[in-house]
Design a protein that fits this description.
277 residues; 60s Ribosomal Protein L30, Chain: A; Alpha/beta knot; 2 domains; seven-stranded parallel β-sheet; 11 helices
Amino acid sequence: MAVIQIEDPADPRLSDYTGLTDVARRSKHEPSMGIYLAESEMVIRIAVEAGHRVKSLLMAERWIEPLADLLPVIGVESAGEIPLYVADYETLEQITGFNVHRGALAAMHRPALLSLDELLKSLESITSPRIAILDGLVNHTNVGAIFRSAAALGADAVLISPTCADPMYRRSIRVSMGTVFQVPWTRFDSWTELGHVLRSRGYAVAALALSDDSVEIEEYAASVPDRLALILGTEGTGISTEARAICDAIVRIPMRADVDSLNVAAASAVAFWALRA
């Protein structure tokens, strides 16, 4: 096995791993370079099981043994294959900008996104499909948590608006526990086009929002359509005007104790459960 010892945190071979706490930079750099970062042994394994290809690995030496069975599978066997970079914890922190206590990082080749049409076609065999639509969510933690709820509670796919945070960002992946590799998702370009496409395929579109014309989720669930797309918006401004324009219904979760709303990730879990097929 070819292990490459790293002592210089400025080693140019490690450009995929530098400044991982710089969200603005990484959000542009990773998609433009066609990569994403998988953090922790478990997430790396889930990514590989999903068929994603490893570009390189960076870890503390103690993580070589726990990953020993996986390394030959992904091509870490001899010089010239997948590089395995090893450094002490102090050097790792200097490279990445944070304490890499989870031990292992992998730069992964970012898979190509399905088109909207391809994703919807993949759901045709599902009797009562459920789709989550994320409208302008910029918090990566919320995005990852929604994917985890989608996987656990029966949402079959996720659609991402043009202004929504990247589900393949390191924090989203970590919070999702790797479910961003398991739940089909893609981005769409136009709300108007999305509305036309969903209706042509028989989907009703509902949104979680507080408004005078909203119905309680239990009432909506009593006669929920077979094919449903559910829009989830930001906690501050709610759903956008463009998103609201394609809705057939506005749904609210009733609250107690003068609480007006839930965190969007928590609300998604409630809604996925209440509107499950």
